[in-house]
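Sequence in, structure out.
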Amino acid sequence: MPNKILTIDGEEGQSIPLILDSPHSGQLYPTDFNHQATFSKLRQAEDTYVDELFDSASNIGAVILKAEFPRSYIDPNRAETDFFFKDIINPNNTVGEIDFKPSIKSELGIGLIWLKIPPEGEKMYKNKITLDELMNRIKKYHRPYHEALRKIMNKTYQKYGKFYHINCHSMQDNATAMSTQIQGTIRPDFVIGDKDGSSCDNGFTKEVVECLRDLKYEVAINDPYKGAELVSAYSNPNLKKHSLQIEINRKLYMNEETRVKHDGFNTLKHNLSNLLNSLKTWIN
């Protein structure tokens, strides 16, 4: 198990109701992760360096939460019910507190527990995992991440009467065999997801999209990513609780296979800092 499950920056100096979280950039791999993937392939699941790309958040008065564990071990951006009961070894007649309701993500092998290896979808494990293994990951990783995000949101809401939340991700340049898209589909520079307008005020989405387009990026909205668990779980625009998801094309800042940053990294980081500063002005 990694020494740290998560990191929070900016809580003490928070001065605006802006919250970011990076649930998939963790690189501390637990010792009980008995996968059969090569490590180079396993890393294809990471949103590598996304936390670094947004680390200016705390400098402008926002708060950023970062997972330190990898999403391929357990994915914080899935509901804890997003798993097939049949994928547990020797299941008994009860799973205790969880009523599994697998989504299309579990069907693709990338639900709560990833059962396939990116990008082509080979089996992640030689054998099925046990119920004890599943519950250990939920209780020690998934739930603490959600609890931390809820606490940040609640504290922000109590102080400001609102919050604006950005769920930060990266995506492959083209769709793989593990995607809902046709394999090989080329993706834009950014995809902004707001659950088809249901997870945040349209003005928030518009501000993010227009700022990125002003920076000469190609931006799509809700296609193919509308946002998942962390955008839908805690948002309620009617109560001024706004969440959106941002997906960054990895070609903009690194070699997708080697995970090595290229010259575009610093440019992108600078531009994302400009985005956050624009949002600070817009929020105020």
